[in-house]
Amino acid sequence: MDLKSSDQATGAAPLPSTVSNALKIVIVGGFGVGKTTMVRSVSEIRPLSTEEIMTRAGVGIDDAGEVRGKTTTTVAFDFGRITLNDEMVLYLFGAPGQQRFWFLWDRLFSGTLGAVVLVDTRRVQDSWYAIDRLEHHGMPFIVARNDFGGPEHRPEDIREALDLSEDIPLIDCDARDRQSSKKVLITLVNHLYSLSTREHV
Amino acid sequence: MTRSVDREDPDRLYIVTGGRSRVDESSIDSVSLIVSECDPTPGMQSEHVKILRMCTGPKAVVEIAAELGLPVSVVKILLCDLLDTGRITARHPSSAAAPTPGPAKTRLPDPTVLKQVLVGLEKL
Fold first, then answer.
1. How far apart are CA A79 and CA A24, in angstroms?
2. pLDDT digits (tens, 9 = 90+) for A168-188
3. Sign of the Cα pseudo-torsion (A105, A109, A112, A114, in order)
4. Which residues of B touch A186 (CB under 8 A)?
5. Which pairing describes strands A21-29 and A114-119: parallel, antiparallel, or unpaired?
6. Measured in Å, how far apart are chain B's first and last C-alpha atoms?
7. pTM (2 d.p.)
8. What is the mean pLDDT of chain B?
9. How many CA atoms lie within 13 A of A173 on its CB side?
10. Is residue B102 part of a domain?
11. Is B94 on the interface with A (CB under 8 A)?
């Protein structure tokens, strides 16, 4: 189903008045890995940007020089939206993986269905911390490798570089492509579904 | 869109919230859907007026924050005022109904909810 271009041009396309349950999926990744691109390719609204204030506990964790002299420190994140049916809407958040961001996880992302870790194979190490934190939060996730046209890597090599267990899905994607990004989300929800049916027996 | 509170006079955030810095976080989720229940009245704080105008249909807290250009936690404080006086209602996400504090194991969502999500995504 293609959305009308007028809907995508405005960030204010209204939700159906019957919508009552909002769900969250978070796309985590380092700077420039394509989080906002992926949000944009599947969102029915132009991605919006907002921010949250850091509590004092997180300030100075990343880099003391960066925050010196500021009275308020914030973490910015982008998000988009997919109306699933008359009752349900899915919010997709693109979230920076850096250290201070995780102080906001419980405040912003409690109740999140699951996460996509978006990986650039030229900078695999950028994803280590995010994967560690997701595991710490008990948040189910999949890994999607955004194709930047670099040298081919075998999936098993990426798995090894990320220390990723066999039961966590790893797929290739092109974050610019709507169908490809849609497939990433479906892979995540299928993974959640199999975990969930295992738990809810 | 690129405006940041980092470069903003902190007094403004203080005034907007009436000096309060805390709100019962568990009462409003970042994707709780807000709906206006009345029209703005004369003398109402301008942020409250804006919220009532933009929520004639359901709108998530993060969308309100993005439109107002204010941090999510500041918007939650503003929404608490409006909720307390019955000027808005909030539809809270059912998946976050019972958040477990701290790093405790996240509860997996209901398979029937996930099935509905899959059906919705396939239609994209």
1. 10
2. 999 999 999 999 999 999 999
3. negative
4. 118, 121-122
5. parallel
6. 27
7. 0.86
8. 83
9. 33
10. no
11. yes
